[in-house]
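Why should sequence recovery work at all? Because a backbone constrains its sequence more than one might expect. Tight turns favour small or flexible residues, buried strands favour hydrophobic ones, and helices have their own preferences. The token representation captures these environments compactly. In the example below, the structure is given first.
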């Protein structure tokens, strides 16, 4: 049965997810079952418009319905017929209400035919064209339906609970190609035009209906006789193979894991320009941003595209074959798609890589939970469904799937997943269906896990202390759930979990771990373990399967042993963190040795980060050797760590990387940013500042490249020089139209960071420029503007944010603008409070001085 928890995050120190205007959302009542949707479109691409004809075959679910209401936003409705008979209709710009001349009868299907047109749509369908600022931009048209944007390009019952087959016929000018769902059943020549006719014979929701049009290069592969096709801009075939070439292996892998062969007649991936997401899993025809295409140098240390490809592919099962019934259950598909990234990493690169990937997903969620808001994964209270597409749904959802796997074990987990898929194929699902499938396949009831991690917000925050009683040969472990307020010990805050604890004994270069399970269900508990010998290290939550935070309070010898010998890389990372908090030369030496000798690059990355936390002279000596590490991710982490040291030695080391470059785009970009951060520490040294700006300017002028990664790093390096007017002037130049889009967006975002130290005149220049940029309609530009404004400490930013929140058609921009508006108000309030405090202190000093003067005067008089 559904679960409901009261949730008041504000009272426990967390921001509320629910903004003003949030309300419960439910699927609408169904007048019947939509069986088929047919779109016939004639596009006028230069004028960003088209004529459309939408036919919907509906099987009524009950008698006597005399009105049908469809979603249709900003369409020009010309005529409505039902079974060839003209119908009266009302249209308010958002919903089309059809007054049926004959009420419905169960068993008698209706064929609804709507003639309409669209001109310069705001959402749903996007026209991308070259212009005077970007003359090399490709000519493309593409759609984006999720969550509720299909209503912007055709009238429909636009919610995921309705599944139907679909069909799209579209007329486009040659040589453009049109791609859609399902199979291409026909093409027809029509002079200078070509008509493409696609048919999707398996049911799916409206948000997965798609259309992509462009002059693409086509790469054709196959899997078990089914076409696997990549569509990219001409001239990028090598990038396409480099970026998507593992797709057939991924299809085989997921087919085996999910126990259900890839269910659709083809799999196409279409890379489009100006896409507003990373990817979209339209049924059998995924759209991807063209920024995911890797050149040879980018492929050296970039696996994000590989993860994106497997993520969207996993949706063909979780999302397209199994469709969520309501947006509140989006985690079922998004969590599994994220977990497929973990699964593929494990398959392709090994368990340590997968464990580190899981840690990055957990950290992504934890950052949102602590810094943005806390919410249950499943909630139907929101303003717009797009608000649910956050790190709780994605990354926390992935962590929940892993906890299910850990709880059930490998064999039973996959039995449960396969049962879920097979029992619900081509149907809608809710969270309860997953619980039922688990119980059906395994006999296990995991409601306790879902209650704690899915139906309520949060996670446990553990503090773990260890001590050894040599005389009694007794190990003591004290576990505190610090998320529980000290004056409370109730289930609203407590987690009840069985956690494996390992006692490790080093044997040369390996270690043996003796594991026991403890039940943690109180705010503070102590556990005692009689052991034959003192363990060398203690591992809390062996294999790190639970979503949590953990602070280790172990003695230094145990932490050093864990850092070098624990078989689990995440436990080694936790040990490194705890050692850094201890501080001191012994910790620096241990971490320095790990940076050199640790076999897994992910641990070396974390060790570099932790070394920077210990402010000793010896830290630099260990870190600088890491610049020669063979792994680019480690070199990046070392450069970030050197930026925190901010000494002349670190400046020289980073400057050499900027001057001479690196084989990795990302390392070079990080060096540019770190150079700015170090230089900003000593801005009274004007010659150095001028030299830094000149060097970064040369990077901007000479190192254009893949996705502008390196030049964006230079932009962020300039942004670190917060009081520099010269740096600000450079940044403003790169916000102009005509600058390549990735670089321009970086420059816009960087205006927020550099604003903090600027004088009032320059601050006004910044706000005026951002206000101008906010008028642009492109989603990514608006998001960049919001990011910049959110870092400012001026009341003028509030007006721009409020205007953007009120006028943008995109729900993501709207919510982000409102959140950042609150942040700016808080920043201003904090600044005002500090100003008042300073004034009060000055007054107290003055009063004390006056009192002191009076006392001295009285003393002088008394002596006379």
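From this structural description, the recovered sequence reads:
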């Amino acid at each position: 049965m559904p679960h409901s928890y009261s949730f008041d995050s504000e009272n426990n120190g967390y921001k509320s997810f629910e903004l003003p205007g949030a309300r419960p959302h439910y699927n609408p009542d169904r007048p019947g079952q939509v069986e088929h949707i047919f779109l016939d479109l004639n596009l006028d691409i230069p004028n960003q418009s088209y004529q459309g004809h939408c036919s919907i075959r509906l099987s009524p679910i009950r008698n006597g319905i005399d009105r049908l209401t469809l979603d249709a936003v900003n369409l020009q409705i010309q005529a409505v017929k039902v079974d060839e008979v003209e119908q009266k209709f009302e249209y308010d710009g958002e919903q089309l209400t059809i007054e049926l001349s004959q009420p419905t009868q169960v068993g008698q299907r209706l064929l609804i035919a709507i003639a309409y047109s669209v001109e310069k749509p705001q959402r749903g369908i996007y026209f991308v064209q070259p212009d005077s600022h970007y003359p090399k931009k490709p000519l493309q048209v593409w759609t984006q339906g999720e969550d509720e944007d299909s209503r912007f390009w055709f009238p429909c019952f636009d919610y995921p609970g309705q599944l139907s087959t679909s069909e799209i016929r579209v007329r486009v000018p040659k040589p453009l190609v049109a791609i859609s769902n399902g199979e291409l059943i026909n093409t027809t020549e029509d002079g200078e035009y070509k008509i493409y006719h696609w048919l999707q014979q398996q049911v799916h929701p409206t948000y997965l209906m798609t259309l992509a049009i462009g002059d693409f290069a086509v790469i054709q592969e196959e899997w078990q006789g089914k076409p696997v096709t990549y569509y990219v801009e001409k001239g990028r075939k090598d990038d396409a193979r480099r970026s998507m070439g593992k797709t057939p292996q991924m299809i085989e892998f997921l087919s085996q894991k999910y126990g259900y062969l890839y269910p659709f007649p083809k799999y196409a991936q279409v890379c489009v320009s100006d896409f507003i997401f990373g990817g979209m899993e339209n049924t059998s025809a995924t759209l991807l941003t063209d920024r995911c295409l890797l050149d040879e140098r980018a492929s050296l240390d970039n696996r994000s595209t590989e993860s994106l490809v497997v993520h969207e592919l996993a949706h063909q099962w979780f999302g397209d074959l199994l469709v969520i019934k309501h947006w509140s259950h989006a985690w079922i598909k998004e969590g599994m798609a994220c977990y497929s990234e973990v699964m593929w990493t494990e398959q392709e690169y090994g368990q340590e890589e997968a464990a580190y990937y899981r840690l990055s997903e957990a950290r992504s969620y934890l950052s949102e939970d602590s810094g943005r808001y806390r919410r249950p994964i499943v909630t139907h209270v929101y303003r717009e469904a797009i608000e649910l597409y956050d790190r709780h749904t994605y990354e926390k959802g992935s962590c929940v799937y892993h906890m299910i796997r850990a709880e059930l074990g490998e064999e039973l987990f996959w039995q449960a997943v396969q049962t879920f898929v097979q029992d619900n194929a081509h149907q809608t699902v809710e969270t309860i269906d997953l619980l039922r499938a688990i119980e059906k396949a395994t006999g296990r009831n995991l409601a306790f896990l879902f209650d704690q991690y899915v139906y309520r917000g949060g996670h446990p925050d553990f503090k773990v202390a260890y001590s050894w009683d040599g005389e009694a040969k007794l190990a003591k472990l004290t576990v505190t759930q610090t998320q529980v307020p000290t004056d409370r010990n109730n289930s609203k805050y407590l987690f009840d979990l069985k956690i494996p604890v390992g006692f490790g004994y080093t044997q040369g270069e390996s270690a043996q771990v003796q594991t026991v399970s403890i039940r943690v269900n109180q705010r503070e508990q102590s556990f005692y373990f009689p052991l034959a010998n003192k363990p060398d290290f203690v591992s809390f939550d062996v294999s790190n399967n639970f979503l949590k935070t953990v602070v280790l309070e172990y003695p230094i010898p145990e932490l050093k042993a864990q850092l070098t010998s624990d078989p689990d890389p995440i436990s080694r990372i936790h040990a490194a963190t705890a050692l850094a908090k201890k501080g001191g030369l012994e910790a620096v030496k241990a971490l320095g040795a790990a940076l050199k000798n640790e076999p897994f690059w992910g641990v070396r990355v974390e060790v570099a980060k932790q070394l920077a936390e210990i402010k000793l002279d010896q830290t630099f000596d260990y870190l600088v050797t890491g610049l020669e590490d063979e792994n680019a991710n480690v070199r990046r982490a070392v450069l970030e760590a050197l930026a925190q040291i901010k000494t002349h030695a670190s400046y020289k080391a980073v400057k050499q990387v900027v001057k001479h470059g690196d084989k990795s785009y990302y390392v070079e970009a990080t060096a540019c940013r770190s150079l700015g951060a170090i230089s900003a520490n000593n801005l009274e040294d004007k010659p150095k500042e001028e030299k830094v700006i000149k060097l970064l300017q040369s990077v901007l002028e000479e190192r254009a490249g893949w996705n502008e990664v390196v030049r964006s790093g230079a932009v962020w390096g300039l942004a670190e020089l917060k009081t520099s007017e010269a740096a600000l002037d450079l940044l403003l130049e790169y916000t102009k139209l005509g600058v390549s889009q990735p670089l321009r967006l970086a420059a816009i975002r960087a205006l927020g960071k550099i604003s903090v130290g600027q004088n009032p005149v320059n601050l006004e220049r910044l706000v005026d420029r951002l206000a101008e940029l906010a008028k642009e309609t492109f989603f990514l530009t608006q998001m960049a503007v919001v990011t910049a404004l959110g870092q400012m400490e001026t009341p003028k930013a509030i007006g721009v944010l409020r205007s953007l929140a009120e006028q943008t058609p995109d729900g993501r921009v709207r919510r982000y603008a409102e959140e950042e508006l609150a942040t700016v108000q808080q920043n201003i309030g904090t600044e005002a409070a500090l100003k008042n405090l300073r004034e009060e202190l000055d007054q107290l000093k003055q009063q004390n001085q006056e009192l002191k003067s009076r006392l001295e005067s009285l003393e002088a008089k008394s002596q006379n």
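A few observations help interpret the result. The first strand starts at residue 23 and ends at 24.
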